[in-house]
Design brief:
By secondary structure, this protein is of the alpha/beta class. It has five helices and eight strands, in the order βαββββαβαβαβα. The strands form two sheets. A six-stranded mixed β-sheet has the order 4-5-1-6-7-8, sandwiched between helices. Strands 2-3 form a two-stranded antiparallel sheet. α1 crosses α5.
Length: 206
């Protein structure tokens, strides 16, 4: 077979290569209901071109998917989002965004495998969709933090009121964020890493 130069498939971009200083890589999942901003968060914070599996929404989803508060959303994740961010020169986080529609939740089992921790992304306009998400993390024993995505028309509640509504213990961090902003999304991930570090210290043998 004659492979001409114009027919070759380009390799990965230079910025996609893992830094040579990397000593550890950690898998993190970003979970939440439909339309809460998981794809946006992965895209805003990833240092590499993010991998997305978005498909155009069709009439078939009407009556099946709850898109309240996301009426202008035209695409949805059907498998996962993937990105990568270096926290230090030695530590890299691999980010996996889960599909939000309940009919795709069967994919979560594979995405949770090997995950060190998770970010639960919330939309306060649809707080109830987070109950099952948090329940699944608790069942699997995956440590998590909660990030409230700041939608312009979403109601705002005191942290302790949200904690009570979600029935979360005091040690689980809850913070506001703007998933569109890299700095805000990065701070959520840093909060998760600090939380995981505190858990490791608490459970370390004396």
């Amino acid at each position: 077979m004659d492979f001409r130069s114009s027919d070759t498939v380009p390799g990965p971009r230079a910025e996609d290569h893992l830094p040579h200083t990397t000593q550890a890589a950690v898998k993190i999942v970003i979970v939440g209901g439909f339309g809460v901003g998981k794809t946006t968060m992965v895209g805003s914070v990833s240092e590499i071109r993010p991998l997305t599996t978005e498909e155009t929404m069709t009439q078939a989803g009407i009556g099946v998917d709850d898109n309240y508060g996301s009426d202008t959303k035209t695409a949805t994740t059907v498998a996962m989002d993937f990105g990568r961010i270096g926290i230090t020169e030695q530590l890299v986080l691999y980010l996996f965004g889960t599909p939000g529609q309940e009919r795709f939740w069967f994919l979560w089992n594979g995405l949770f495998e090997g995950a060190l921790g998770a970010v639960v992304l919330l939309d306060t306009r649809r707080l109830e969709v987070s109950f099952d998400v948090i329940g699944r993390l608790e069942e699997r024993g995956v440590p998590f933090v909660v990030a409230v995505n700041s939608f312009p028309d979403a109601p705002r509640y005191p942290v302790e009121e949200l904690r009570g509504a979600l029935d979360l213990p005091r040690e689980i961090p809850i913070m506001e964020c703007d998933a569109r902003r890299r700095a805000s999304s990065r701070e959520v991930l840093m909060t998760l890493m600090r939380f995981l570090h505190s858990l490791a210290r608490t459970h370390a043998p004396a």
